[in-house]
Specification:
Elements (H helix, E strand, L loop, with lengths): L1 E4 L4 H12 L5 E4 L7 H10 L2 H4 L5 H4 L3 H5 L4 H10 L8 E4 L2 E5 L3 H7 L2
Parallel strand pairs: 1-2
Antiparallel strand pairs: 1-3, 3-4
Length: 115
């Protein structure tokens, strides 16, 4: 299992703590430091709609210019934005066998998914 996110994000911290407390082994991928490749983002986009992967409630999105925001209209433009500004991605993303099993963190969801 792999958990994608950035370490200083409170939601990522909650997910990591929950996984650690439940003895679940995972690899943490800090996409701020380690980056992301187009293949990974494309795989995610094949599983979740772009408007769920782009966190439009976060500070990164809110700090974009109006022109940058209106330019994000489809998977391609969302992919380009996510590769340029990884912190715009909703996090954490929990992946198992190349499939997203959780987007964001919700304790009840984690409990049902990870047994």
């Amino acid at each position: 299992m792999k958990l994608y996110g950035i370490p200083n994000c409170n939601t990522v911290k909650k997910a990591r703590t929950w996984l650690d407390d439940h003895g679940i082994t995972y690899e943490f991928h800090d996409f701020k430091k380690q980056g992301l490749d187009q293949s990974t983002v494309s795989t995610w986009l094949s599983q979740k709609p772009w408007d769920k992967l782009v966190n439009r409630a976060g500070m990164t999105w809110r700090n974009l210019s109006d022109a940058e925001k209106t330019a994000v209209t489809d998977e391609k433009s969302a992919c380009d934005l996510m590769l340029q500004k990884t912190s715009v991605i909703k996090r954490p993303i929990l992946v198992k066998d190349d499939s997203i099993i959780a987007l964001g963190f919700d304790e009840a969801t984690y409990q049902t998914l990870i047994k």
